[in-house]
Each structure stands twice: as C-alpha cells, then as structure tokens.
Amino acid sequence: MSRKRIVVIGGTAAGPKAAARAKRLDENADVTLLQKAPNLSMASCGYPYYVAGSVKERDKLLATPAGVVRDPAFFAGAKGVAALTGTEVTAIDRAAHTIAWKRAASGETGHLPYDKLIIATGSSPKIPPIPGRELAGVTTLASLEDADLLREKAKAMPGGRAVIVGGGLIGMETCEALTDAGLAVTVVEALPQILGFLDPELALLVANHAKAKGAAVLTGVGLSEILGANGAVSGVRLADGRELPCSLVVLAIGVAPNVALAKAAGLELGATGGIKIDAHMRTSDPDIYAAGDCVEVTNRLTGQPMLAPYGDLANLEGRVAGENAALGDTATFPGTIGSGICKVFDFAAGSTGLSERRAREAGIDVVSAVNAGSDIPGFMGAKLLVSKIVAEAKTGRILGFSCVGPGNVNRQVAEMAMAILGGLTVDDLAMADLPYAPPYSLAIDHAIASAHILQNKMRGLMRSVGNGEIKARLDAGDRPLLLDVRGPKEFERTRLGLGETLIPVGQLRKRLAELPQDKTTPIVAYCGVSMRAYEAQRMLLAAGYDNVTVMEGGLAAWPFAREK
Amino acid sequence: MSRKRIVVIGGTAAGPKAAARAKRLDENADVTLLQKAPNLSMASCGYPYYVAGSVKERDKLLATPAGVVRDPAFFAGAKGVAALTGTEVTAIDRAAHTIAWKRAASGETGHLPYDKLIIATGSSPKIPPIPGRELAGVTTLASLEDADLLREKAKAMPGGRAVIVGGGLIGMETCEALTDAGLAVTVVEALPQILGFLDPELALLVANHAKAKGAAVLTGVGLSEILGANGAVSGVRLADGRELPCSLVVLAIGVAPNVALAKAAGLELGATGGIKIDAHMRTSDPDIYAAGDCVEVTNRLTGQPMLAPYGDLANLEGRVAGENAALGDTATFPGTIGSGICKVFDFAAGSTGLSERRAREAGIDVVSAVNAGSDIPGFMGAKLLVSKIVAEAKTGRILGFSCVGPGNVNRQVAEMAMAILGGLTVDDLAMADLPYAPPYSLAIDHAIASAHILQNKMRGLMRSVGNGEIKARLDAGDRPLLLDVRGPKEFERTRLGLGETLIPVGQLRKRLAELPQDKTTPIVAYCGVSMRAYEAQRMLLAAGYDNVTVMEGGLAAWPFAREK
C-alpha cells in the first residue's frame, strides 16, 4: 500500500492543527506543511501583550506549554510532520495533484505531489486605499514581524503619539497595548461605535472606559489621509478635516481571507469572499480541504454564510480538515454562533450569538433586556457587569448575549455560549443550575438574573426599554417624569442631572401624592441597576399608574453624560 | 375582593425571595414573613469569609448591593412585606388555615391566618452522637451567631489548634478560614476522601493542596469522642485511638432538612427526608408550598429525589413558590443537576452533573476522561486545571464535569453546567464555539480539549485510563513499562520515581529499539499532561505496540507520592 501524501498550506493555527491531527490518525501518511512566514504556530492573539511588554520573551509566543519552540525540528520529531518555513506555495495544479512552491530566501522553486491538500492560508489585514499608507511608521498588527516593529517603536518613543485606525477587537487591544507602553493613543473609527459585535450602548461603556484610561476614542469619523514628512508619518487627517499629529499609525480595519491561491486554482468562493466549504471542510474539489481564516463558515443561528477569522475556530476547523484528509469525511464542523471576548484595560467585552442589531438585520423578531449588576457579592468585592440578552420573541430561544465591564465577563459569556449552543430558552435559563460560591458568583448568577428580567418583560410584568431609547426620546424633546428611586446618599454621589424626582422605593407607597395626579403622565423609573425601579413599577401599576417605563440597567448602564 | 393572605415561614434565602416575588406579582396581597432567627436574608455562604476576617463588617452579610441592611423596616418599605424576626412558627393548622407563632424574647404567642402558606424552614447542621459534643468550644458554622463565635475564637487564640469534623464543602471552606485566621487546623473526614462531590483522584489533589497550605487532612477515620477539661474542649479522640489536642471543634458533617413543622402538620415527606413537593413547589396540601433546604428536589439527570441544600437553588425555588402562591401554579422548578464550587486556599474545586461514581451508582453506563492543562496560554501566566468529564456511553451525552486546581475552574464549571442543561453530547462539545482571547482562555478551551480526549477515547483512537487505576495496578504488583515521553529537563525537575523509562516523544520514532522487542509487554505512557503521551501511543500503535495505555492527565494530575 502506498503512503498517503497530505500537504498543508499554512502554518499558523488551522494548518499545524490539521497536519498534526492527520498524522496522529494516519501514522503511515506523509504529511508536509508549507509556511510562507519564517515561524510556525505563532500565538498571534498574543501579539498585543507582546507589544505592551507584558509578554517579555518572544519565544513564548512560539512555544508549547512545556516550553519547546515549535520549529521544523519540533514538528519533525514530535508531530512527524515535515514543516518547511519561508516557503510560499505559488500555485495548485488540481489536475496533476501537485502544488508549486518557492523559497523566499534562495529563490529555489519546486513541486510537491499530494493525495489530499489542506488550504489554511489565513487572512491579511485590510489596507484602506488612502494616501500616505506607504509611509514609514504605518503598520498593521498581523504578523510577528509587525509585533516586533510595534514593540520597538513603542519603546523608542515614550510619550509619543499613535493613531489606531479601526476600533474593532484588534484596534482596541492595540489601544490598550500602546497606552500601557506609554504612548498617547487615539482610536479613529469610521462607524458610529467601536466593537461592532456589541450593541451601541454597551460599546459606548467600553469607549468611556478607554477614555478614562487616557486613550482618545473618535467614532463616526473616517481617515482621509496619512500625513508625512521625509517619508515618515507626521500625522493623520480625518474626513472632517481635523488633523492629529502622530508618529505611528496602526491600521486595524479588519482582515480579508487569503484566497488568491484557491481562486487561481478554480476553487469555488462564497458570497462573503471566503473559500466555500461543506460541513466536512471540503472545498469544491473533493481532494482539497480548507480551514481557518480563509474559509467561509455558516452562522448556526441565521444559517447565513459569514467570515469568522478567529483563532479558536481555526483550531477546530483544522482538526476537522486534518481528520477528514486522513480518514475520509468522518468529522463535521457545525459552524459558528459567533463568540468572542477581548480585554480593554480593566474592562472585558464579550459577546456570543447575535447582538440585537444583527438579529434584526437577519430578519428575526427578537426581544432583549439589559441587566446591570455585580459579578460576586458586595462583601467579596463585587465588580460591575452590564449585559444584554437577546431571545427570539416567538419561542423564547436565547439567540445572543453581550457583556462588558470590570467584572467577570469571561464566565458569563462562556456559560451563555453553551446555553445558546444547547438551545436553551429564557425559561430554561431562568431556572439554570450553576456553580455558586461567594468568591465566584452571585447566588442568582448574573445571566440567570438576565433571564428573570427578560422573562418578566416578555410576560408583561415589567415594562422596560433600553437607555438608548430613553436618550433618543429625551433628545427628541419628550419630557417624561424621571423617577429616581434610590436613597438620598446614592443620589448625592451621582445622578442624571436632568431634573429628575427622587423618591426612594421604600417610601414610594406613602408618597404617591407627590406624583402627577394625572396617572397617565409618562414616568421613567430607574435606580442604580433598575431592580428597585422594577419594584417601583409594580407598586405604581397597582396604584393605577399604567404609563411607567423602567430604564433597563439603571445608572450603572447609562453611558451618556451625567452629573458628578 | 378580599386581599389574599400569603404567609412565609423562614427568612434566610428561599423565604425572603418567595415573599418579595409574591408581593411584586400581587401588590394587593398581604404578605407576612416569620423568621425564628434575629436577622433576615443573611448571606450564609459568606460566613467562612467573615470568620477568616476577609469580610470585615458584619452588616455587609445582611445588606443589599446598595448597602441597606435587610431588616423589617427595609422589608416593609421596599418589599411591602411584613417581616417578623425572633418569631418562631410552632404549628400549622391546615384545617383552620392558620399558623401559631411564638416570640422568643417576650414569650408572646399568637395565630395568623393564611390563604397560601410557604414553608422555607431551611436545614440544621447534623450533630454526631458522640460524647463531648456539649463542651464549650464545640460549634457548627450554620448561623450568623456561629460565625460571630468562630470569628471571636479565632482572634482570641492565634496559633491555637482547631479540629474540623467533616471534609465536605463547608468543612474545607472553614479549614481555609481558620488557617487564614492563624489557627493550626486538622480536618477529620470519616470517608476515604474529602469533598464527596468529586471523584477520589481529584479530591486527593485538593487535599494535597490544603496540606501544602499547612492544614492537616485525615481521611478514612472518624471521631469517637470530643475530650474536655473543665467543661471546655481539650482535644478529640479518633476512631483509631489517636488523640489530637485542640481547643476548638467545628462540626461540619452536613445538614438535615428542618421538617418537624411540616411533619407535625401531616405534610408528606420524601424518601430522603425532605418535604415532598411537585414541580410547582407545592406540598401534599394544595395551599402550602415549600422551598429551600427543607425540600426534596429531583435530580434532572437520574430522575431520583435528592436533598440539595444550596443557596442558589433556594433562591430559584423561592421565586417559583412565591409566584405560584400569588398567581396560581404558573411557574415550575425543573430540579437540579447538582452544580457547586468552593474555594480551598488557592484552589477552586467545582462540579456539575454526576461524578463518575455517582453515575455508576445510579446505574448509568458511562465513559470518562481526565484532562490536565492550562486555563490560559503560558505567555499570559497559565494556571493548572485538572478535570474529569463523564458522558453516557451509549449516547455520548455529557452527564458530569468536575474540575480542580489553581486555574479558572469557575468558567469551566459554569460553562459545563450549561452544556449539561442543554443536553450537549461529547461531539457537540468538541466543536463548541466559546469566547477566546489570551487573557481568558486557551484557543482550545479546557472543556473542549476534554471533549477531544473523550471523543478520541470513545472512538478507540486513544486508549487511556485514570491514574487511580494505574496506581491500583502498581499496588497490586503489576509491573508495566512506565514510559515518560517528556524532555530530559522536565524529567530532572520531577518524576514518578518508579523505575520509569524516559524517551522524549520527539525521539520515539527513532528509538523504538529501546522498547521491549516483545511488543505485547504492557506499556503505560505519560508526560506532563499526557497530550504527548497520546501522540506517543499513536506512534507505537502504528509500530505494532498494541498494549500501550495512556495515563490520563499525566504528572499534573498524579495525586500520589512522586520524586522531587
């Protein structure tokens, strides 16, 4: 029996995983991996921490947990995979079942035959077509070499100014990294908000936090030009004409799948531009698989194709592609629900499933609720979580959950990703059985409380809206009675400052006379997190006030200006 | 229309939740809550941290997130609930629809009529029937008064000796609290292991950690007597005759439901001794509900009745009972899967669903796998997690997950609780889509890696057993070739010390000649966490060695003695 030849193109995340998995499942296969870059298995999600200096040793980004650098010798010995670095694949000849390669250093070229081919060519950062993008000091953060450069730059220019173009996940991580490294950072985002995976009010809380940490965050304004002097960056000009001086520009407006090779070989691409694959990660050629940032995957909640260039999915996809190349199509990749998290200074921002906006864009009739609260009990040192839960209106099935704040966002988003994968409804979540102890969560976990709120809302027990809607109404000239039901000390510390009325919830039953006798006057009730406001609404409803709206998340979730 | 009278017996967790929920849903109801203890809504899970001194202010255990102490005035104002403290309910007259009460301070008695009654009488610590239990210095940690006493005792006797009877959740939390407070602590557990919700090997890792932190942990030995002098504790005598001097004994052998009142009223009790309830939290009397530690609930995985005296469930049960008392049986409580977590010094120990032992006791044919690994990447400061996943053999449905270690156990157990609630299978979990970023998890999350291991095992790709089985074989005289496939530096740092052979995995293909030429000699392969051992097994299998067993979790999960 001749040995099966499996060739893998790409050596960062999906490629090495696919190659190693294939070899483990078929020790008699010849597995060859070709990598254009000089390194293998780079922990690219760690670049921001290397730039910031919190990761000190470069090798740590390339090493196994046991501390061995994943170089070709490691791949040969431990994995049984022939890994060729600095070696670009220039063409795929599907008829001949060969690939053509070229070595960057020597110019050497050659061909390699394959029985099964796995394409894991990854993605490349998008470069906006604006003048000045070729100037020295303009970079992306997409390769280890980029990270080296940024780290050096940051060290060399303490107190210097940097502009980050794009307020997505990588943009905000880079914002933190460069700020931590001592630079004055401005993030410029053309869309009205940063972190597009969040709904606007949550994104605004993160932007506020980044500003409090010293970064400038400009939204709703694009870049028109990168300004230079003597071939180096001297600043940027925004679309509105403003100029910002800086000596470093990081472009972080997203990535595009690397599909040139696949396209030239006549493989089918999807509507999003990624390589089209089936559930077995197989392309339109039965002997070619693809995995990682270069492919188009299915969103499990909308059924729609999407690009999902994330390191965790790349590993799972690579595992499936590697198995199927070795064994035949025994493994399937079910698609993604879209889960992510990032650290932005002392906040985490995470999301799983669909945001409210994206669900509506997909034509789904949804209900949602914002919840603000503690991650653990006050006596243990509680930190704030602000989240939004999204569910299908008809069935109550949970479709999305986003969460931001200094609290333990990580647990919340991870558990809610599993809840969505399991098809849980709001009623299921309201009675979920989660691990509780004071160092780790509240007795009623934040996500369970979110379900309680949404359940009350869906049943008409609570009538509430998000603060974005309240703000829009106020901006449009509406003047509801703003009813703050906290205690006087809390009111002293901070308040909206919009002419609100303070009646502590504990006194409300006795002080109804202070409210408009016309019981139909619109009232917007809130407190610190709007739990007491819900209680107030129940009291007022029983007293005949049936035009009371609770402002979800209360002051804790209010991302707009306030007093004090 | 006459106002509905809802009476709630018990004011710690389930009771206040039920009372407040009932009032919110029916503002026109008269809701009365009677509490035997002097305080209301005590955060009893926080007692260990109050004893240790990390929670400084007693009031914080009684206060809302906004800092208001939950006393009768608070309940009257904010909740609209009449709360009577220091007031014991002495009898329920079901025919007359009244309860009899007695005030401890004044001796005053009276009756109160109800339309709907909610019993939330909680549980009491079990007291072992041994001589000396009445001595001064013998206590439990079940009430705020107990916590006050222990806190004072701990302050008054720095360097003193304490014995904790029982190595369950409360016993181990108290062990940490008293050690942190400066006492020399010995835990005495009659069962062969501490923390009965864990399988033995994981429990042993936690016990090892507690010992490393200075506590003594004795398992498999009961207490026969508490020794005294002048009416105060002077030590304990163990069942094996050993005597341990001490001046403080904390009894923590579990709790029993408080059902005397319900039993005297003729309400049906369950086989476990808890009050029997239906899915609406209704007792055998249609006008009486029960919730919290005093009830028997259904295990959702086995269908069997069980006691589940946990604060989080008490709140959920109270919410259901309160709603149903107010509105009729509109809410249901689905039962528990058994989720819990506790902090033991720098370790967390958590579990959700069934341990392997409990699943087998319930007659379920299960498969399991131990996984040891990092919580986050090494370059971010990884900490160890050791876990065991349990699934139904026939269907692959996940039934249980336990996890211990210094790493982020909290996220793991929370997400796996949701996975179990959602009915996920091992295959589902293997392709789960979780939030990933280096500060928060690995690219392949620990739980997903656990699914990969178990999936490989179920498909026969990996042949592995737990270290408990390996240890038992060695103890029985088996002498397999112990094959350590780590690097020489790792071997220098620590090793089993049982005559093992070291061949690094990267050299294995070339050094097969060093293995027994008789390819059927049993080989047990392992490494740091046994990922490389799995690779070694795949190589060896292809080379004809078909009697190779991987020791799950490798050295990181090995809880027995080793060299260095």
UniProtKB/TrEMBL annotation, chains A, B:
Residues 476-564 form the Rhodanese domain. Belongs to the class-III pyridine nucleotide-disulfide oxidoreductase family. PANTHER family: NAD(P)H SULFUR OXIDOREDUCTASE (COA-DEPENDENT), PYRIDINE NUCLEOTIDE-DISULFIDE OXIDOREDUCTASE DOMAIN-CONTAINING. It holds the Pfam family Rhodanese. SMART domains: RHOD. This is Pyridine nucleotide-disulphide oxidoreductase family protein. Keywords: FAD, Flavoprotein, Oxidoreductase, Redox-active center. The keyword Plastid does not apply.
